[in-house]
Amino acid sequence: MDCLVSPGWRQYHVDLYLDVEILVMFQGSMVALVTPMREGGVIDEDSLQRLIDFHVENRSDALVAVGTTGESATLNEEEHCHLIRRTVEMAAGRIPVIAGTGANSTREAIDLTHCAYQAGVDACLLVTPYYNKPTQEGLYQHHKAVAEAVPVAQILYNVPGRTAVDLLPATVERLAAIDNIIGIKEATGDMNRAREILDRCGDRFELYSGDDATAMELLLLGGQGNISVTANVAPAAMHEMCAAALAGDRDTAAAINARLEILHRTLFIESNPIPVKWALHEMGLIPAGIRLPLTPLANEYHDIVRQALSQAGVIVP
Fold it and tell me: Active-site residue among 117, 130, 140, 157?
């Protein structure tokens, strides 16, 4: 898989059991990209190109396309695969692309991950199977099956507040032994959990935050990056905060994070991605569309989100 390597990106090789070599490079602020839609939920590819260019210009370190923030749960498989292909094409080697390919059906997760691999993504992000609440052994076997079926770098994603299942550190450690499972997006916001994963898995495994409010602390603790909702609207600031934290510069990272702190919380004032899509529409970057069962941001929250954007230094026309 050919990738354009930028000097700031983390690099290493994973040699898979089927003699495929993968170049992996993720560090810093990785935006959990929304899926732009027009009224009625029709996907807007012109706005997708605009968003990708916006993130390249503002130094986001990677795109995470069609993840849960990208409304993957309401896309059919054809739309999902098409969006992955178009994101890779539009990124055009300027920025790494990670594709969300998780599902609560192992067969579907394999199919989506294979589609992303064929599209040329740099890695896949797989949320734990939601709703059906597998055991820890079921979680292990699910992710192992996907990893063995598709020779692409894979990142686990643990967000028990949304999925009703928690991928425990002992299971993460077992999965870290599989060559092409390279890291985890840990969205609990629990620093004790982060420490345990780091202690168990060490340097052979990447730890990314999935919680903007605690991302700085996780990076200072030894994590490698943040898969961020806030980066949708404040990509330059999130890049700078992550870079400072990765360099061990707590004072600089904390000063930037202080400007973003209210925004981190406000972007979850209703279920993600409702507030962040409304904010991007206010910024003139995307239309107002969102798919049911999600609905547009309630009027009572409009001024609250506007104020949070303003405090963070985000310019709204």
Answer: 157
Task: Please give the tally of structural domains in the chain.
Answer: 1
Q: Out of 117, 130, 140, 185, which one is annotated catalytic? A: 185
Task: Check whether 6 has a pLDDT greater than 90.
Answer: no
User: Do residues 224 and 183 make contact, with C-beta atoms less than 8 angstroms apart?
Assistant: yes
129: left (phi over 0), alpha (psi -120 to 50) or beta: beta
3-class SS of residue 298: coil
In a domain, 146, yes or no: yes
Of residues 159, 220, 211, 225, the one with CA closest to residue 27: 225
Q: What is the CATH number of the domain that holds 190?
A: 3.20.20.70
Whether this model's pTM surpasses 0.90: yes
The answer to whether residue 261 is domain-embedded is: no
Long-range pairs for 24-27: beta carbons < 8 A, 24 or more residues apart: 24/122, 24/123, 24/153, 24/182, 25/96, 25/122, 26/61, 26/62, 26/96, 26/98, 26/122, 26/123, 26/183, 26/206, 26/208, 26/224, 26/225, 27/61, 27/224, 27/225, 27/246
Is residue 203 one of the residues assigned to a domain? yes
Quick check: is 277 catalytic?
no
Q: Are 203 and 220 in contact (CB under 8 A)?
A: no
CA distance 57 to 187: 27
Clarify whether 157 is annotated catalytic. yes
Q: Which domain holds residue 234?
A: 12-252
Q: Tell me the residue type at 242.
A: C
Q: Residue 43 pLDDT > 90, yes or no?
A: yes
247 belongs to a structural domain: yes
Q: Which 3-state string (H, E, C) describes 52-114?
A: HHHHHHCCCCEEEECCCCCCHHHCCHHHHHHHHHHHHHHHCCCCCEEEECCCCCHHHHHHHHH
List, for residues 219-241, the tens digit of each pLDDT value. 999 999 999 999 999 999 999 99
